[in-house]
Design a protein that fits this description.
alpha/beta; two-stranded antiparallel sheet; 14% strand; globular; binds flavin-adenine dinucleotide; binds iron/sulfur cluster
């Protein structure tokens, strides 16, 4: 079966971090791409106002809640995951850490190759795309963490974490500051602390503001509220 018989060369399942990067990079290579996403599409204003806003915060269609957070119970594990166009980036801490040297020195990585060097270029790409930056301010939480860790005798280990957040001037909206004006407008973080409920300010650099934004500009079709239930072969290399 020739791929010219199909509307798309690639269908990406899910629009979270992995799906968004795949969609953009495949489109940049000239493929016709569509993204099938189980959850809804959100604007910043649609994001939940509080965790008690169950219809917008929780994903449990059987109960009529079609929000973002999907709680899954396994035999020995309980996980929160996110669902919606942008996947995990819709409601997350925005903390973008690199693995530390000790991780790559572990035999399961060390013996397989120079992973720290190999990944460095990709870390830099992801950090640029997601706008990773150190928060330019001290917070009460940071001070408390510092005091606690000093009390435990490890004060020198405390550092600020890079976050995929536009810090800018709090509450002030500017033209895209990341991609030479080709991205969406951004509003400076107001330090409201609601990242884990959803950033309604527009400061979190969710995937809708970078990878998916540029994927759509290249013609990628993002289809929300489409849950993939099966993948079946219909030819030698076609599914
Ligand atoms: C509350 C919370 C805070 C977090 N904070 C951080 C943080 O600060 N820093 C950090 O690095 N990580 C954080 N994480 C973890 C991070 O969000 C995940 O590691 C990341 O989202 C995983 O990316 P992914 O591409 O694998 O999947 P996801 O981002 O979860 O995307 C998967 C997408 O696929 C869709 N999907 C699934 N099945 C189907 C199907 N059958 N058909 C169609 N669509 C489907 C889902 O709806 C979802 O949108 C946090 C996670 C949570 C829950
Ligand atoms: S404006 Fe509030 S929700 Fe958005 S990034 Fe800043 S602290 Fe988080």
């Amino acid at each position: 079966v020739s791929s010219t018989h199909f509307d798309h060369d690639w269908l990406v399942v899910g629009s979270g971090f992995g799906g968004s990067v795949s969609a953009l990079r495949l489109a940049e290579k000239g493929y016709r791409v569509a993204v099938l996403e189980k959850g809804r599409r959100y604007t910043d204003a649609d994001l939940p106002k509080a965790t008690s806003d169950r219809g917008a915060y929780l994903w449990a269609p059987a109960l009529g809640w079609r929000g973002i957070m999907r709680m899954r119970l396994f035999k020995h594990l309980f996980t929160p995951t996110q669902t919606g166009v942008g996947g995990g980036s819709l409601v997350y801490g925005g903390v973008l850490l690199r693995a530390r040297p000790a991780f790559f020195e572990d035999p399961q990585w060390r013996d397989l190759g120079p992973w720290a060097n190999l990944l460095d270029h990709h870390y830099r790409t992801a950090e640029r795309m997601l706008g990773a930056a150190l928060p330019p301010f001290e917070s009460t939480n940071q001070q408390l963490a510092q005091e606690l860790v000093e009390h435990l005798g490890n004060g020198a280990t405390v550092t600020r974490s890079p976050a995929g957040v536009f810090f800018g001037k709090p509450g002030h909206t500017v033209s895209d500051p990341y991609f030479d004006g080709d991205g969406p407008d951004r509003t400076g973080c107001t330090r409201c602390g609601a990242c884990m409920v959803g950033c309604r300010v527009g400061a979190v650099n969710s995937l809708n503001k970078n990878y998916l934004w540029f994927a759509e500009k290249l013609g990628v079709a993002i289809m929300p509220e489409r849950a993939v239930t099966d993948i079946a072969p219909i030819g030698a290399a076609t599914w």
